[in-house]
Amino acid sequence: MNANPLALFWEGFTIESYAQIDAQSLLIRLQPADDYLPCCSGCNQHTLAIHDISTRRVRERDLFQYRVWLDVPVRRVRCTTCGPKLEQIRWLPGRQRLTAGMVSWIESLVRLMPIQHVATLLGLHWHTVKAIDHRRLKREVTEPDKRRIRRLIMDEFALFKGHRYATVAIDADTQQVLWVGEGRSRAAVRPFFEWLGPETCGQIEAVAMDMNTAMDLEVQHHCPQARVVYDLFHVVAKFGREVIDRVRVDQANQLRHDKPARKVVKRSRWLLLRNRGNLKDEQALKLEELLQANQPLMTVYVLKDQLKELWYAPSEADARQRWQDWLNLAMSSGLAPVQQFARRLKGYVDGIIASAVYRLNTSVLEGMNNKIKVIKRVAYGYRDNDYFFLKIKAAFPGKAR
């Protein structure tokens, strides 16, 4: 039986001595094992020729309440092939000051805890822990198979306060995050299509997005055969902000001399914006009474419901007919906010009609964006965007086709 059972953790070495440095630290001095030939780290050949020996102090995983340090005699061998070369120590690769076991332990912890918490727990510098996790992410995040990418979903999320955004693109079929980049302009999203390359861009069939002109134009430039599909949620939400809210405020202003009625209209925002199926019985009754009493609000509410139907058409021909019917109703409504919105929406009609062929939307990506917010909040934000974007890719590796 080995007289030093702890030496089993450090291949090629035995324990020479150990001492308590302070109440929280333990120092273990190692020595080369007599029956272990050093190995050249360059060519993996064993040799007896030693060029010189230096002692390196490294950090090992904690033992009970102690932080463990090792004094390791690191030899340079005189290799006949490589010349003077550091010996290969499998549990202490390269010139690190942390053992492989310690690095593995840190990698496990950062999957569960913020970097700052891991650094405090282990008594390490924040940058040390971050560098280890960064290397892990680069090792584990795999490149997608570009040959199989056919449909994309693109959206943006807030990086910081102050209108700073990033754009994320995913494979619509596997839900793997393909690319994340800072900004939402044409110039910001162009590197994504350059990364895809002409061959992959040439096989893209459809790209789902909100009504973002920058993304739209860049898709048309790099993937001219791809259909742009505008997301239902974003268009209807835009209708709610620009039309329903405007009409509601105008109606409330017209009722300034009837304070009870004005109060009802002013407080009706969420009743008008929420889907009827999500309302409780009492709320549904209030909505019905409101719409019966106010014709302009009834008009915009009906137009909102009919606008949604454009995305559920069984064919492009039917979708185009539904659009024409909706446009006629909007232009004949007599409501300026509705007419103005309808005129602007004309430029995006092809992307709405395309949903009849490609049933794509950004709802999956919206859910991912919520998880991205959690990743950012848990870490109290990220100072390094490259590292943050790797975190996002690691969180969404995709699913098998």
Automatic annotation (TrEMBL):
Domain Transposase IS204/IS1001/IS1096/IS1165 DDE: 153-392
InterPro entries found in the cross-reference section: Transpos_ISL3 (IPR047951), Transposase_DDE (IPR002560), Transposase_HTH (IPR032877), Transposase_Znf (IPR029261)
Transposase IS204/IS1001/IS1096/IS1165 helix-turn-helix domain span: 87-136
Transposase IS204/IS1001/IS1096/IS1165 zinc-finger domain location: 38-82
Protein's UniProt name: ISL3 family transposase
Organism: Pseudomonas neustonica
